[in-house]
Amino acid sequence: MSNSKSVEKLVEEAIHNIQVDRACASKLLTDVMIILTTNNDSDSHKRLGEVASKYLETLQRSNEQLVKIAALSAKSSGIKTGLSKEDINSIYDEVVSDKK
User: Fold this and answer.
1) pLDDT tier at 1 (50, 70, 90 boundaries)?
2) CA distances in angstroms from 35 to 8, 31, 46, 62, listed in the order given
3) Total domain count, the chain
4) How far apart (Å, rounded) are the C-alpha atoms in residues 54 and 80?
5) Which has the least CB within 10 A, 58, 59, 87, 100?
6) How far apart are CA 72 and CA 76, in angstroms?
7) Which residues contact 8 (CB under 8 A, 6 or more apart)?
8) Which domain holds residue 40?
9) Alpha-carbon gap, residue 52 to 25, rounded angstroms
10) Are 48 and 32 spatial neighbours (Cβ–Cβ below 8 Å)?
11) Which tens digits make up the pLDDT trace of 13-61?
12) Burial (Cβ within 10 Å: 0-12, 13-18, ≥19) of residue 28
């Protein structure tokens, strides 16, 4: 198996694992949210809030992994990544105008 094929296979496997992790975390987070909205017990809110936080961290990590994979894929295919000077100026203008 060539190096590029093994990398491609690993990327496919990583994306599959990310999708499975996201689906599980999303389902579990939904279940926690249902319990939190139907239960007024402050102890369970505290305990389940910590659990929900862990599920959200899992979702965030999977987002970061997908961004890294996309960046590596773009880099290996020669696609230019990053913001253009025009994009940077546009974002800056929006931030400045929002502060006014």
Assistant:
1) very low
2) 41, 6, 12, 25
3) 1
4) 34
5) 100
6) 6
7) none
8) 3-99
9) 9
10) yes
11) 888 888 888 888 889 889 888 888 888 777 777 888 888 888 888 888 8
12) middle
pLDDT of 56: 84
At residue 97, what is the residue type? S
Q: Please enumerate, as own/partner, the contacts of 9-13 that have beta carbons within 8 Å and a separation of 24 or more.
A: 11/69, 11/72, 11/73
Residue pair 28/55 in contact by the 8 Å Cβ criterion: yes
Residue type at 12 in one-letter notation: E
What whole-number percentage of the chain has pLDDT above 90? 0
Residue 53 and residue 61 in contact, taking contact as beta carbons nearer than 8 Å:
no
